[in-house]
Amino acid sequence: MTVGDILRKAAREHPDKIGVIFGLRRFSWREFDQRVNSLANALLGLGLKRGSRVAILAANCNEYLETNYAAAKAGLVTVPTNVRLAPAELSYTLSHASPSALIVHPDFVEAEKAVSGNLGNLIRIGFGSNHPYGLDYETLISVNSQKDPEVEVGEDDLWLIAYTSGTTGAAKGVMISHRNACSAEIALAKTLGLESSDVYLLSGPFYFNGGGGLRLAATWVGATIVIVSFEAETVLQTIQKERVTCFHGGTTPLSRLVNHPDVTKYDLSSVRKTMVTGSRISPALWQRTESVFGPIVNACYGLTETIGNGTYLSRGDVAFEGALSHRLSSSGKPMMSLEIKVVSDDGKEVPRNGATTGEIIMKGDPVATGYWRDSERTAAMIRNGWLHTGDIAAIDEDGFLYILDRKSEMIKSGGVQIFPAEVENVINRHPAVKICAVFKVPDSEWGETPKALVVLKDGVAASEKDIIEHCKKYIASYKKPTSVEFVDSLPMTEWGKILRKELVARYWKK
Question: Could you say which of 221, 245, 310, 394 is the most buried, measured as most Cβ atoms within 10 Å of its Cβ?
């Protein structure tokens, strides 16, 4: 199966059903498929060949999804670009991917002008009103055939290059094949229990793999996809208006949603499931979400390199009190699509005792083929078919994973290993703390030592001594931060991951 086959299935089985909604636009699956075919034929007519890259610079919209599928049907490769990048970062992405065509919304014309002048003979296509480009997206669709393009596309052909958010270094171009995408998305659809009757809200940024993560899954089952760009009140309004049944996102947008001051004014009773990814959901946020929506929360751990596949923690696996409460700190059990192991440095599986730690490795069809134009990184990360994630975890006798931290972010203080996430979990339990970040800083005696940056809740106070003494109650003394600094905010990805590399860069003096 290819990505194009997923859309063909929806158009064949649900031709007259509304498949995609964006603002006032509503397309049946048949209409959407026809628009995709016309765009695919237009791109081929402009001289793009099998394997050519097509980049898109836009916020969430139906054109974004159409480009994803048109590239798939034409044998082309989509390159989503992060609209929030600085010019130098955006220039790096485009130069590295070397697209033949760039599709641009008017809101990002200035960004395009700032970075693409040195990219050679780049075909520029504009959409929306008042764009300056000679080629217009809607005109291309209107004058090209609605028939499926006659291009042979294989399962192992490249479909998308997803540039990582760069939480651990320079962004990498993850190469996602049709086989990777289809196996991963079908597994997500089955795991979450998506159905054709569902109305799926797609609000995460399309340029982020997690953001567009269930777009293929929802298409595969013939659900209705409602596209918005995340803004808490917009999402609440859309859930009520469109009777949304499923959505997924990170902990940061979820927190903004359930803590919105007007959340109780909306009818949210249609929602039956959400999948939370990006970073582990805290028990407090889980309970707050249930107070708003009911028992709809399911958690997921995955990577760009596995198209969001990894482990899954269902609501039925946990409890807030009693025998199953310890699983709130778990990331769940492996999805059906992957074989997952936790191994020591010598490659042997660690005991399943919930305490012995090792690196998570994964194997299966969702594992990406490697990194674009980076054979060295590919060889380092994917060995004998196993993806070495760099994430440290323990696994219990029932197969539940307990993720501690990134291997690269582990602190070695006097030769002893300290996991920042473990310390953060303790600090976040302090009643005055809103959120915190723990990371390594240099120390003349121990080599490295933990430092904490803490954001306090509004209207409350705490001292450095308060935080350190709090830590000593719950973890070994050597794990406690040796210094605490109070700040107004922390650098984070849009889905709630703390950018520790930025903090290390600020404080580490070589």
Answer: 310
Say how many CA atoms lie within 13 Å of 377 toward its Cβ: 17
pTM of the model: 0.85
How many C-beta atoms surround the C-beta of residue 152 within 10 A?
7
The CB density around residue 59, as the number of other CB atoms within 10 Å, is 15
Q: Could you tell me if 276 and 297 are in contact, meaning their C-beta atoms sit under 8 angstroms apart?
A: yes
**Pairwise CA distance, residues 54 & 127, whole Å:** 15
Question: What are 416-451's pLDDT values in tens digits?
Answer: 778 888 899 899 999 999 999 998 888 777 778 899
- Which residue in this structure is represented by tokens 């602190």? 411
> Position of tokens 């793009």?
48
What is the residue-wise DSSP string for 199-223? EEEE-S-TTSTTTTTTHHHHHHHT-
Q: pLDDT tens-digit profile of 363-385?
A: 999 999 999 999 999 999 999 99
Q: Cα–Cα distance between 187 and 388 in angstroms, integer?
A: 21
Q: Quick one: tokens of 200? A: 């799926």
Question: In sequence order, what are the residues at sequence separation of 6 or more whose Cβ sits closer than 8 angstroms to the Cβ of residue 445?
Answer: 414
If DSSP codes are grouped into helix, strand and coil, which group holds residue 292? helix
φ and ψ at residue 70, rounded to 5 degrees: -65, -45
Beta carbons of 390 and 384 less than 8 angstroms apart:
no
